[in-house]
Amino acid sequence: TVGAVARDVHGHLAAATSTGGMTAKHVGRVGDTPLIGAGTFADDASCAVSATGHGEFFIRRVVAHSVHARISLLGEPLARAAEVVVMDELRALGGEGGLVAVDRHGHIAMPFNSEGMYRGCVRDDGRCLTAIH
Amino acid sequence: MQTFALAIHGGAGTVPAASLTPEAAAAYRRGLEDALRAGHAVLCGGGSALDAVTAAVCALEDDPLFNAGRGAVFNLAGRHEMDAAVMDGRDRAAGAVAALCDIRNPVRVARRVMEASPHVLLAGEGARAFALEQGFAAEPEAYFHTERRWQALQEERARLHDGGSAADAPAERRHG
To answer: B82-88 and B121-123: which strand pairing?
Structure first.
């Protein structure tokens, strides 16, 4: 799975996710990627989220929308909201994976509870940061 | 406050650190950096967040190292079934496709669903028909075929045949 989230100079947010799914998946199996609120979500008032991992768990946990809800309803900062959803709530179900997210201020979070997650970010200065494990 | 920001992922099904060669790690990081630069170029020019995430994801879909688009894994029947979605934070507009078999850059089709249809999610043959109606070209199977993914399918089929379950699959196959 691949994905991206962004905040533009006008303060607008967007998210996109794309995947081939799981190797040897059942024909017709759909994961969290195309399910708005599970693997992909964006709202200018809170954050944009793109997720990756064992999709069935992300669907049941409604992961992307949960990050938005914690920011909107609890007033949590992005880093805290994303951390709780991925490291506590998702893991409690047995779900592995992670997400990338950006909030309306341009803060970035990239938590994961798996061994690694191919990831990267860039800001105004153009300096690209990438990591795997 | 940041003027703009972009973050990407290339999946959580990473090769274990102990077995990832320096050359392979460098290739993955190059792919990630190319995607970041594609999105950064959009944002630098005052482009929208929606255009930036589309550009970044397209770059990753075009890179056979990542499990999407050109590098998509095979399903149990030995075919590709690709899913994609986009969402615009300005108005919560959203578009998605599921089980798309042979269209390049599924994320562009998802965006077209958002922008040119009254729907949010189109699946299977309906998604393919919509893509073709909208001018997207179908690619031959060879475009999406990567030997590494094909071998992974054969190994997974053998494992399932020997009594393994989908839940026991190695992380790089269990995760998108």
So the answer is: unpaired
- Do B8 and A29 count as a contact with CB atoms less than 8 A apart? no
A1 vs B11: CB contact, 8 Å cut-off? yes
A59 neighbors A38 (Cβ within 8 angstroms): yes
Distance CA B123, CA B81 (A): 10
Q: How many whole angstroms separate alpha carbon B149 and alpha carbon B73? A: 5
Rounded CA-CA distance B82/A30 in Å is 9
Characterize the bridge pairing of strands B121-123 and B93-100: parallel
pLDDT in tens, A79-128: 999 999 999 999 999 999 999 999 999 999 999 999 999 999 999 999 99
Q: Which residue has tokens 């998604």?
A: B127
Q: Cβ of A125: how many Cβ atoms within 10 Å? A: 8
